[in-house]
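step: validate -> pass
step: tokenize input -> pass
step: predict -> running
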Amino acid sequence: MLAAERRDHLLGLLAREGKIVAKDVAADLGISEDSVRRDLRDLAAEGLCQRVYGGALPVSPAVVDYAARQSVAPDGKRKVASAAADLVRPGGTLILDGGTTALAVARALPQDLACTVITHSPTIAAALLDHPQVELYLLGGRIFKHSAVACGAVAVEAAQNVSADLCLLGVTGVHPEAGLTTADAEEAAMKRALAARAADTYILASSEKIGTASRFRVLPLDRVSGLITDADPHDTVVEQLKVLGLEVLAAG
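step: predict -> pass
step: emit ->
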């Protein structure tokens, strides 16, 4: 089989099965695992898959920069945001992550809601300035411009000194095997620090993130209270997540 044919085969397998197991592909095609791994390296370099131990997973489309992400699945993000906003109780304290879905959550909060919001995102803070009864705390640190959030040691330390009833956390990938992932190591560490300070953490994930993975794990699935998504409740990956014990809240 020519290299171009192997490439098409791998991409087709990824689309159909949602993952590639290198040893299985090698056995099926009668080639070495090294050949499959080289092909996967090439596909990963083009942004067409996310390599993991033993093979590859679909790559998340949500790893582009902040400005570009605003045009990715806006309807899905609004649906997820609306469902997430319903979880915020009057008088409660919310940790709200950064990113475009979290921004949609900020915009979905009722204008007359009285609560406390803690965030490390300047864009989230700015979006809540016109909510007169929201007490707003902005965690500082080095600004990661890709996602318009503070991260790094200073931001993590600040996060360790707050507490909340609820954390709404964004990720770029949700996968039954890879867990909850994002594309930057420091951003992943900041998300872990935020989630650790809330009684309940729910993941915000519009449908294009379901079944995909990025380079860095944020949390395993059993460390969060649930997932809010507009993905089809009968989607194969969603069903797998439910079997693993993850509560899935349907948005839309």
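step: describe -> The CA atoms of residues 202 and 227 lie 5 Å apart.
step: cleanup -> pass
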